[in-house]
Structures are given as C-alpha cells and as structure tokens.
Amino acid sequence: MGGGAFSDVAGSAASSNKLINLLRGWPNTSLLPINLLDRASHNVLSNRGKAFPAMEYGPDPGDPKLRKSLAAWLTRFYEPVAAIPEARITITGGASQNLACLLQVYTDPVYTRNVWIVAPSYMLAFRIFDDSGFHQKLRAVPEDDEGLDIEFLKREIRKSEENALKSGNDEPRLKPRRAWGKIYKHIIYAVPTFSNPSFKTMTLKRREELVRVARDYDALVITDDVYDFLQWPASLTAQKLSLDKAILPRLVDIDRYLDGGTDREGADGFGNAASNGSFSKICGPGLRTGWVEGTQQFAHGVSQTGSSRSGGAPSHLTATFVAETVASGELQSYVYDVLQPAYGKRYQKMVAAINQNLVPLGVKVPQTDRDVVGGYFIWLTLPKPLKGAVVTQRAKDDENLIVAQGEIFEVPGDTEFAHFESDLRVCFAWEEEDALAEGIQRLGRVIRSLQDEDGMDSVPAMQPAASGEGAKDFW
C-alpha cells in the first residue's frame, strides 16, 4: 500500500544539506516501467477490438485476460499444491481499496468482535478500519522472532469470544444475510512477508498456526502480500539478486491445503484467508490496480461489492494495460531482471551503511539470520534511552533527513503490549541510490550526538558476518 501525502514532509529550513527522505515508501521514478506500459497501452488503444471493451464498464470480477495470466504467474511463482484457477482471483483497485471492500462484504461493525492487527503495522490501514466502524475494536498483536505472537492472539481472542457470549452478540446486526457473502466473527490483518514496517517475515510454522486459529474462531486473515515479488538473497556479497520462486507459501495457500483445506468437512466454502495483491510495488502505484485471491466463493463475494456491481471492476482500463504486460511475460521479466537486482543492490548499500554507522552505536535490526530478504523497508531499534520522536526531529532539524518514528505504526488505542517509541523505519526504495548510505551516515551522526549529550557509551562494534551462505549481514 502506498504512502500518499503522509510522506510529503518538509525538510529543514536551517540545514544546508540536501533533503534525504527515508520515510517515503514509493518506488524511485527510475524504476517505473514507463516504456513497458507505453507499449501495453498502445496495444490496447490501437486495437478497437481491445479498446472498446477496455473503455466500457468491465465485468464484476475484472478483466478476464488479466485474471487468467495473473493466475498462471502466481502458480509459477508460489508453486501451490494445485494450479491457481482464475476463479480464485478478482481484480481490485489496489490493496487499500480492496481492504475496504473486504470489510464491506465480510464484516459487521457490531457482530464482528475485533480487528486484530499485527503490530507494528502499516499505519494508513487504520483509517480504512475506522471508516468501517471498527475504531473502538482495533487490537494490537505484538510480534516475536517468528512473526505474530500466536499465544497472545489465542489468549486475547478467547477473551473476546467470552465477552461476545456474555453480551448476546450472536448474529450480525447491521448487515443482511447474502448468499454470496458471509460475516466473519474476527478480522486478522498482517503483512507476513517482508513486512511494512517491521521488516520481518512470518515463519511457515507460525503461518500454519495462524490459519488454525482463524478456523477455530471464524476469523478472516487478510494479508497484504504486496512485497512478495521483491526478494533477493540476504548476503551483502551476493552477485545474483534475483529469485523467481516464493520463499514461503502465502496464508491463502496454506488455508487451501492444511488439514483438508477449504473443502474439509464442515467448512462453508469461503475459507479463512485472503491474499491482497497489488501492482503498485512491481509496476506503478498510479495504476491503482491489484487483485485479491481466496476461494472461488470468496473471490466471487468480493466482486459483488456494491461499488463493483454499480460500475464493474475498478481500474478496468489500466487493468487491460497490465494484462498485456503479464500475458506477454514482460512484467515478469521486468520484476526479475530489473526490480529485484535494483532493490537488492539498494538494500546492500543501506545495510552496509547500517553495519558501519549504526550497529556500533547499539542499533538493532530484526531477524538477522534470514537467507532471503526483500520489500522496501528496514526496522531499527534504538539503544536505550533514545526515543524515536527525538531522533527523527533532530535528524530533520540538524541533518535535513526524514525518517519514520516507530510510534506512528502503533495500533490506535491499544499500545499496552505493542509500543514502539524506541524504533525507526527507513526506506531504501524512494531516494536515489547514492543518497541511501549518506542518509544512514547522517542518522548515525544524530544518534552519536544524542548519546554524547546523554553521557551514553556506545556499544562496542560487532564484526559483520563473513559473506556467503547463511551470512548474518547485520552482525
């Protein structure tokens, strides 16, 4: 999901340094596939047989060509137990728009007990939940080394069910019963792979545990799987920075096969997981085009959202452009041959700078033993007693550097067990490549200056791991 105006932060008026914005989670303009989309749009608009259907209202589930070619790509990339049929996919207006649609179709603001959000979390999703009437029902689920804290979730969701039973909350109050939809008791929201913002990847064991919990408590797990295609080896010495197979199955894949899958005895056919995909990170945010995958019954329900029934699938014209690039294989090649190596190189530069400038000061990074990393962001935990709000303000004022303080990723109204006043998030996708190391150097100067003012001793420098297989890049 994109950053929007949130990341348009003014720099320092006093600093002579050039502004470096490590908060903005946008792709650098040099990585936008303009030529690819130019050809695709020309192919559509110059052919009346394609142009006229593209310019009219589209079918509710979305452009058939895109659904078919996307299903084939996802099958090759994720290698699920069986090929993904296009009936499991509905085209959306992007991950943010579809999150709102999922809440419209599959929740009731009274009957749905809680929205459980893995924290730290993508901060601009909070408003979407608020708009659907859940502003008093948002609950934070902290992370451990494997991702979402499953024992915490099970304990708290049991309490939620006990409260619902006591209050007689036993059926939807505001939403009508519809044959093509259902109302879930709980919503669980996560970014399980290369998470924004925590940079973590949820383990396979934890993913399977989460699916079982969702089934036990009639919950829908909504995962933003928007960074999955942007992956590369973690080693800072890796030369080949391209991987064309997913490192882990998605929650929606696990729900499809685990313990009898979505067709097991007693299941209602809707499943308990939905994969929210987007072309924003692999093609361009301005397309406002994405997809959702679930069971066939679930995907159909999404296509019946009132806004889609009124005008057909959202972003229909741009979806036909994207369909051209996916059907031809051009977008896949662009992701593997251009984006992954480019982002991998940016990651290597930023992590090398973190090793050199921040780790010796006591800054920590999660999950340093992974073989594969990816996404846009790196999560940093400051040495005590430094606070993210102080560091970000000083970085802006003294260094003309913009970074994100951890507190903005806290779930509103529920920070007792998941609070991040000592954390920062930095992005390696937006700024020019040469600015990434300089930005981390500036951040190091700010941290060292604050430590000197507080009389803190910096942590003795730790030696980075040797390059090669299994290297732990941060330590």
From TrEMBL:
Which controlled-vocabulary keywords does the entry list? Transferase
Pfam families found in the cross-reference section: Aminotran_1_2
Among the GO molecular function terms of this UniProt record, one is: pyridoxal phosphate binding
- Extract the ranges annotated as region (Disordered): 454-475
Q: Where is the Aminotransferase class I/classII large domain?
A: 54-443
Q: What is this protein called?
A: PLP-dependent transferase
Identify the taxonomic lineage of the organism of origin: Eukaryota, Fungi, Dikarya, Ascomycota, Pezizomycotina
